Amino acid sequence: MKKILAFISIISIVGVLASCGKEEANTEPKPKTCEQIEPCKTALKYTTYIEQGASDKAYRMETKDENLVSYDNEKEAKEHILSDYKKYQDRQIKKYGLLEYEVIPNKKYVYKFRFEDFRNGEVKNLTVGVSRQNDKYLTNSYIGGALKSDVKYKGAIVPYKKYYSNGLTKEDKATFSPELVENY
Question: What is the Cα–Cα distance from 139 to 62, expressed in whole angstroms?
């Protein structure tokens, strides 16, 4: 009886070991989302501020000096607040696609976002530059979008990574896929 149990145990162990090599292990890390990557998260936050109409918050992200203000006085600042700012101040960009160009590794990035406009629902693009200065990421908006020269490093166009917000369907991904910067 003991011999039969030992034989069955050996057979089952050999069977388990034999099946281990049939499936290849995937050692590649799971793709990250924009929210998990610090410069991308910074660019998304900046884009959200621009879309909300929070120009003062966006301005603070553009400068090293946190004490700088975008207007000379509070009255002037209030005159430049969009009339519907209160309506959109807590809204976040939920559906988006973006291209990330890491122009200078760990130092300079260009992000091209495609998302739905808060006010009219139309799909639009916004291109944001992010540069690392010491331990802080600073932003800038590309008026009219980035050019091919903005995504070149040492004379060559840098490769891009594509990210989408969570939960998009295939149709959404087609809608929110931005065109490549190097096409301009």
Answer: 5
